[in-house]
Amino acid sequence: MTHEDGSLDLNLDLDRRRRLGMVEAVWGADKTVDQIVAAARRLGAAGETLLVTRVDETKAKAVCRQLPTLRYHPQARCITMGGAMTDAPWQRLALLTGGSSDLPVAAEASVALACHGVEAELIADVGVAGLHRLMARLDHLARFPILIVCAGMEGSLATVVAGLLPQPVIAVPVSVGYGVSAGGHVALQGMLASCAPGLCVVNIDNGYGAAMAALRILRRKNTEGQARQADSGG
């Protein structure tokens, strides 16, 4: 249904950046091409960043034909416009995957972070089946304020990382695996049942959700750091 303002049943949250420090992501999987185009135009007119997630290539091409200035990220299945995707990020974190099959979920997280000026360094294919690959990178990983870990199968990489490193670890169960892996449910349950204290877990394949959880932590740390500096007169 199209309303008088051409909104196609969209009621975008243009106040989210002020309230939360993040933009509204448009869920693209269940939206039509016209709805995505309408959202892009509305956000563009408001001077806001566009981030559309879960867009297949066919739908993305149809959208971009109408709005050629949009950018499609095929691995992440995201469409973006505007935002803080620059060469001068205000913060960095590390994004780990158990295997290369986890990369689409990691890419979604990376694009979502980039839209908010956060660079994610990808450290791929360091799953527990070859634990030496992770162990060789521990000193490097210790430098990052937050770690996002994407893993399918049994999902044990997140527990191992959270048991070895002290910073916040956000686990993303991935729907990679067969048989009893059950589309990521075993990875999810394993992460939720982790004995590593303080491991945070988001929903299956929710790279965007992990990115926003990390963004909340980073923004809070940044705000507290600025407040301490102001209190000290620095």
Describe, in plain words, how this protein is organized in 3D.
This protein is an alpha/beta fold and 234 residues long. It folds into 2 domains: 16-81; 91-222, Rossmann fold, CATH 3.40.50. The protein has helices spanning 16-20, 33-45, 57-66, 103-114, 132-135, 138-141, 156-164, 185-192, 207-231, and strands at 26-27, 50-53, 71-73, 78-81, 91-97, 118-123, 147-151, 169-173, 200-201. The strands form 2 sheets. A 5-stranded parallel β-sheet has the order 6-5-7-8-9, sandwiched between helices. Strands 1-2-4-3 form a 4-stranded mixed β-sheet, sandwiched between helices. Helix 4 links the parallel strand 5 (91-97) and strand 6. The longest helix has 25 residues, at 207-231. The N and C termini lie far apart (55 Å). Mean pLDDT is 90; it is low at 1-5.
In short:
The protein has helices spanning about 15-20, 35-45, 55-65, 105-115, 130-135, 140, 155-165, 185-190, 205-230, and strands spanning about 25, 50-55, 70-75, 80, 90-95, 120-125, 145-150, 170-175, 200. The longest helix has 25 residues, at about 205-230.
Detail the topology: elements first, then pairings.
Layout: H1 16-20, E1 26-27, H2 33-45, E2 50-53, H3 57-66, E3 71-73, E4 78-81, E5 91-97, H4 103-114, E6 118-123, H5 132-135, H6 138-141, E7 147-151, H7 156-164, E8 169-173, H8 185-192, E9 200-201, H9 207-231
Parallel strand pairs: 1-2, 5-6, 5-7, 7-8, 8-9
Antiparallel strand pairs: 2-4, 3-4
Helix pairs in contact: 2-3, 4-9
**Major β-sheet annotation:** 5 strands, parallel
Q: Write the element-wise H/E pattern from the N-terminal end onward.
A: HEHEHEEEHEHHEHEHEH
What's the count of strands? Answer: 9
| Tertiary shape | globular
Number of helices in the DSSP assignment: 9
Spans where pLDDT lies below 50 across 5 or more residues: 1-5
CATH class of the largest domain: Alpha Beta
Please report the distance between the alpha carbons of the first and last residues: 55 Å
